[in-house]
Amino acid sequence: MLETLTNPPEDVVTNVTFAEKSNLLAVSSWDKTLRLYNVDSSENGKLVHKCEWSAPVMDCIFLEDDKKVAFGDLNKNLNLLDIETGAVVTVGRHNAPVRTVRFNSQLKSLVSGGWDKRIKVFDLRSTNLKPTADVEIYGKAYCMDMINNTLVVGDSMKRVYIYDLSRGLSGFSTPDTKDGILKFQYRYLRCFPDEKGFALSSIEGRVAWEYFSKDPEVVSQQYAFKCHRNKTSSENDVAYAVNTIDFHPQYGTFVTGGADGLVCAWDGFSRKRLWKSVTFDTSVASVSFNSTGDKLAIAVSDVFQLNPSQSATTNICIREIKPDECKPRKFK
């Protein structure tokens, strides 16, 4: 079953993300809003808060208590919304737009990646805007994810940085790096739930399956596959950007959303597609599973990839996930 929420953003969606302990959904957008929806069955996808901001909101993430949402904006600021009071405070700043944000519970800090080619860490226990860590990367921060104390960043120069933060801030001094995993510009990355690696997508309809380990036997299991493509002839196909990835919290399978207007579910271990959605009117900009894996939020939004000449409506849809839909092949 697919439910479309009322009161969607009026411009391109940059991210959708569920809270860790509830069915509260945060949606950030170029329309300068951060919206919160309660998608519990009893609330029927009610819009419970709308934060109107001074600039487009580029990314958002819940903190561990689900009472605050951090977001980065086009005006170079990293901000924190208190859901209960509606108050917003600026906790950090870059020299260019803040593209991506994550929270580290061990450091009690927000980690932000900016188009100023910097990764910054801001301790939420501090009262000033000075970062506790500020590291330069090769290109603009395009995508980022964190699983416990492992931070992974992909930049505009197609380099991936892997930081081990179990050692605290000293982990920023010696990252592992991987270059040219995919041929074309990186679009999105998401860490495996088992903390062993990450999936990385590009604008050319490909996803790479990568491991952190340098063991040759493990490295030999890495691969990349084509997806979100439309064959135009026996020899040629049109490749669409893979805009978003999320893993099922229970089974470790994952979904991708593409500029072709499709959501596809995959078993990364068997290298098989499990299912694909109906084709939406325009690009799938972002997806997010809730903590129990029985709901999938899908942002359908024209990110200027599918058909820029055609005006498309932004929608936030909730897909109910049946118990067997995302099970790996071997358990079906």
From TrEMBL:
Assigned keywords, A-Z: Repeat, WD repeat
Species name: Theileria equi strain WA
UniProt signal peptide: none
Superkingdom of this protein's organism: Eukaryota
PROSITE patterns for this protein: WD_REPEATS_2, WD_REPEATS_REGION
Pfam annotation, one family: WD40
SUPFAM superfamilies named in the record: WD40 repeat-like (SSF50978)
WD repeats: 91-132, 242-267
Protein name according to UniProt: Uncharacterized protein
